[in-house]
Design a protein that fits this description.
By secondary structure, the protein is α/β, with parallel strands linked by helices. The chain is built from 24 helices and 39 strands. Among the domains are: 113 residues; 116 residues, Phosphorylase Kinase, domain 1 (2-Layer Sandwich), CATH 3.30.200.20; 287 residues, Transferase(Phosphotransferase), domain 1. The protein has a 15-stranded mixed sheet. The longest helix has 46 residues.
Amino acid sequence: MVDLQRVFLSLFFLSLLLKFSFILGQPLSSSTELSALFDLRSSLGLRSKDWPRKADPCSAWHGVRCQSGRVVGLNLSGLRRTRLGRINPQFSVDALANLTSLSYFNSSGFFLPGPIPDWFGSNLSSLSVLDLRFSSIISSIPSSLGNLPNLTHLYLSNNVLTGTIPETLGQLSTLLVLDLSQNLLTGFIPPSLSSLHNLTLLHLSANFLSGPIPPSLGSLLNLASLHLSDNSLTLSIPNELGNLTLLRDLDLSLNLLSGTLPNELGGLRNLRRIALANNSLTGPLPPNVFSNLQKLQSIVLNHNNFNSALPDVLWFRSELHFLDASYNNLTGTIPNRTSIANASDAIFNLSYNLLYGSLTSQLERFSFIDLSGNYFQGRVPDGTSLNASVNDNCLQNVSNQKSLQDCQSFYAARGLNFNGIGPTHDPTSPPAQGDKNNQHLKFILLGVFGGIVFIALLVLLVALFLCRRRQVGTADQREISANPVPSVGGLPPYGISINFASLGEAFTYRQLLGATKDFGDSNLIKHGHSGDLYRGILEGGIPIVVKRINVNTLKRDAYMKELDLFSSASHSRLVPLLGHCLEHENEKLLVYKFMPNGDLSNALFRKTTQEGDGLQSLDWITRVKIAIGAAEALSYLHHECNPPLVHRDVQASSILLDDKFEVRFGSLSELCIQEGDGHQNVLTRFLRLSQTSEQGLTGPPSTCAYDVYCLGKVLLELVTGKLGMSASNNANTNEWLEYALPYININEKELMTKIVDPSLILDEDLFEEVWAMAIVAKSCLNPKPSKRPLTRYILKALENPLKVVREENSGSARLRTTSSRGSWNAAFFGSIREATILKRSGTAYSQGSLQGGDVSSSHKRLSNEIFPEPAGVRDIERQDGD
């Protein structure tokens, strides 16, 4: 009986063991694969915490998936290396060749510097998913990848891949997703990709691809997403793309496309989003195309040359939530129908076109609409100003409008009636009696007000004159240096002259026309937001850059900001102004010194040959030099100018580089006085009132903290090699910041290996400098503006990078020795601590958080507990609070 019980008990435990083995999965049965996994563990330097040596890989190793005792999947994303593994990380995965049942391999975000092995295409025949995003892979894409018969998903985006796209990828007949975006690929898009008939997603954006879009891509009938943006693609949009009836997302922006929109695009009946911005497309917007695209939710057409009316159907489409057709030549009027834009959350940007006529009261249905830079006349309907921007038009009851002459010329050229700027009644008809009385009252009030203003101005001018004399006397006594700082630094009002003698040579228009070859396209550098930039050579062989400003399309006095700055200030970090030409009323020319190394956006990765066969990365020493130069320029504007000046356009393209890679700050047209500055006298504030109002709600913030935020993105671009990040505030940039910033940790240097630019050659000390600059960048990106460091602290931190990481990590005892609130490292690290707490509490690092609210007191207490403030700092803060 006892034996029978033992038998039943043994069977019971055996059944339980079988059940648990079924639930947990069978142990690894192949000794070859077990040996391969241990080889991989060693070559990648994975921690025993993730892959414990004495445990079964199928049940206990993170990221290892088994089926029937064989390894079918590996996921390295999120795993970390040992200290020795971090010293020399490589793409060392040769052991994968022995995992013959492997169906997916994911190393997204795992640092694998080096090329993809050529044997991937011959030894991993079972592979269906290959995900190597954000892995810092270099070199070219091996053509052998086209030999993977079961591959369905190929993700290689956000790496440093060079060379061309292999033709052999067209052999992947089972492929569903191909993402090669955010790399350095060159050459044409291979027509062989049209053989991928199962493809649903094709992303090739942000590379250096050239040539036309292959018409054969129109045969990919299952395609749902096609992204070819931010390349150098030429010629027209192929008609064949209209065959992609399942397409939902089409992005061809930031290319060199020309021609008209093909009518065949009307066949994209499932299209939700279309982006064609920053090309050279021209001609009309075909109404029949947009009539057929009834599911469109987002349309981006800005910075092209479309020259027709905006199709009426777009005004009435309730599904359309976003439309940007700014900076085109669109004309016509706004239809006046009650059903216009039923979607209350719709955002339209139609600024800087040739639209005209009266504004309709139905504009209040929009969440926001930008109609600036057009030719609308009449009056603004009540309630429109709250959700609309109407600057630079021909309207009557708002400020910041075009001149009467410009408006009259526009309407006369088109044979249209223009009612003028002023009263809306017919000026030839006699006014009514009530109107006469109102006019008399207006004249009386105007005279009284004018007299008061005149007396106030007279008194203030006398006070300013006396104050100026006192300043001059004090300056003489103190022997101020030859490089004065601006006393105002903004736009001088009309009637106050600029010292043009200090602005270099007064060139003639004929001189600059000859220097730039009649402003020919071959001499065009780029279309800047404040004017077109042309390279030129003066008669003496001196290279120059000429900014050509059309005052009809920009604020008429915008160029005066730069002239005012250069007339009152001189600093080695500002781009040298050689002269000007102000002969023509509607066109102004500013002449700058030519910068041989262009700007940072083009110099970070430079072509090494004339044919553009390869790219050479800036070395780390040069990057540090550029970072310090940019910080010096901002420190001058923020701390040496009185009142402080805000650049408002800090990005890689604004950082110009001379022949020795010394920084010269450009793009000075957005420069203004810091918002809310308390040092301005009454007259200065009065004279600057119109300038402040012109900035509107849509311009960049006029605060030094905004410059610091933008500088942080530039520093991060230097650290990571992420091209174009500092120039963009879109969702992709914010998403990348949220991905990258957690890897910047003051307590853990090794995390930086996941985001550092893989093209950099670094020893241990240089890697610490990279780490330090990344910490500086993260402090600049603090979502709370008041917690971002001042630029003078940033400059000192960049000049002493090892002091940043070594002193902060040396313990709280070192911090407690700080006795002054003015200490740069005490103030600097305060912003890092706040950023750490905000990140832990779930606050996102994004442009949308620039004006975020105060952090709660509980967060502040937690911050002090984790990072105790120096005693001296706390004492001074307590005294200030009292």
